[in-house]
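re the bet — no i am not wrong, look at it urself. input seq straight from the record:
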Amino acid sequence: MPKGITSRVTLILIFLFLSLLYLTPTLVPNLPSWWQGMFFPKDKIHLGLDLQGGIHLVMEVDTQKAVEGQLDLIATDLEDTLHSKNLRFRNVSRLGSDRVAVVLYDRSTADEVGKFLKSRYPRLNVQAPFDEGGFLNLQLRMDDKEMQGIRDKSVQQALETIRNRIDQFGVTEPVIQREGTRNIVVQLPGVQDPKRAIELIGKTARLEFKLVDEGVNPATVTPGTVPEDAEILMEKKTDPDTHVVTEMPYVLKKKTMITGDLLTDAQVRFDQYNMPYVAIEFNSVGARLFDQVTAANVGKRFAIVLDNNIYSAPVIRERISGGSAQISGSFTEQEARDLAIVLRAGALPAPVHVIQNVTVGPSLGQDSINKGLIAGLVGVILVVGFMAVYYKLSGMVANLGMVLNIVFLMGALAAFGATLTLPGIAAIVLLIGMSVDANVLIFERVREELRLGKTPKAALDAGYDKAFLTIMDSHVTTLITAAVLFQFGTGPVKGFAVSLSLGVIINLFTALVGTKVVFDYFLGRGRATKISI
C-alpha cells in the first residue's frame, strides 16, 4: 500500500475506533465490571427533554419585591448610620413601593440628614422635608430608571441562582434561559420528581438570624399587641411517625442580626441520634458578626429563619467563635440535602412564581425517537438507492463515506457530552443528504474530465481538486449559520446547531479524505483501469 494511502487509512481507522469506543456506553446498556474499572468512556449520549421526558417550567420573577427589598436594605442601613452618628430621629421605614421615609424631630437635624442622604445615596431623589403631625418627614424616592435597573438585575441574579441550584441538583444538560422581561424558562430532562424540583428551584432561601423577643408571651399575643419592632413567625414541626404538622408561634425582633449572604458552605450532617441537620460556615465578616451577637446575647433564644419560617430557635449557651453553626429541625435527609443546596447556591433576589408547568412523559420521548429513527432510515435507503443507481460503484463509495459520517458524528456527540434533541435528529437526517452532496459535486467534475479523454487517475485527481473550493465554500457558510443558531437560538435550536456543526466538519473529512482513499487504493495499485461512474 502506498505511503500516502497508509497514513490516511490509519487516520480513518483511528477515528473509527474512537467513535465506536465512545459509543459503547450508548450501544451497550449493561457494561461489564472490568469496563467500569478502567479509564474507558462511561457516559452515554444524553437525550434532551423532548426525547427522554422531564419538566418544562416558565417562572415569573416578582421584580417589584426586589425593588422593595432594596428599599428595606436602604432603610436598615440608614437607621444604623443615624444611630452611629447620634442623630435623633423618630423612625425610618419604607413607604409604599418607591421611597424611604425618615421622621425627624427638628429642622436642624432634618437639614443635616438631608445633606448626608444626598452624599450617601446620590442616585436617589431627596425630597424637601415637610411637616406631618408635628414631625418633619424627609423622603428618599427611587426614580423609574433606577427601579428598572433593579428589576433587570433581579431577573439576571435569579437566573444565575437557579442555574447554580440545578447544577448541584445533578441534572444533565438543563436549559435555563431568560424569556421577556420577567420570565425564566427551565427545562430539566430526565427529572421524574417535578414537585421536588419546583420546590428546590423556587425557594427564595432568604436565611436570617433573629433574636426572640423574650418580653412577649407568644401564647397570648395577638397581631394588634405585637410591638412595633417585633413580628410573629411560626416554627413548623412534623411528627416522623404520624406526619402530623404542628405550629409553634414565636415573637421575634424584626431586625436581622445576620443574613445568609455571609455563608460560604452548607453541608448535611447527622447528630448522635442519626437525625440530619445542616452545618453552615460563615465567611470572615459573618464569623465576626456571629461571634459578637452570640457573645452579647448569652442565655437568649436565637431563631434561624428561612423564608419567614422558623427552623429552630435554640438558646445561646455560650459565645460561639469560628464561624460555624447548625440548622436543625424535624426534616428528612432529602429535605436537609435540598436545604443545603439552596443555601450554598444563595438566595433568590425576589420570589419566583411558576406560571407554566408541563411534565413531558418518557412515552412521548420514545415516540419521538422512533419517528426520528424511521425518518433517518428512510432517508438513508433513498440516498443509498439513488447513489447506487446513478453513480454505480462510485456511488457505493459515497455511501461508505455517508456511513462513516454518521458513525463519526454519533461518536463525536458522545465524546463531547452533547445532548441529542429532536431537532438534533433532524440535523442528522439533513446531514445524510449533505454527506453525499459533496461527492455529487466531485463525481460530476470527474465525469467532465473523463469526457475530455483523461485517464481515470488523472480525472479523479482533477475532479477532487476542482470541486475543493466549492465544497469548502458551502461547508464554511453552513458552519457560520450553525454558529449563529447556537449563539442566539434557544435550547432545541442549539441542539440542531451542535449536530449540524459537528456533521459539517466531519463531512469535510469523509468527503475529501475518506472516499478518495478508496479510489486511490484501487487506481494506484492498478486493480482498476476505469471508473464505474
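see?? The chain has three domains: 3-51+362-524, 64-146, 203-359. told u. also DSSP finds 13 helices and 20 strands in the chain. so pay up
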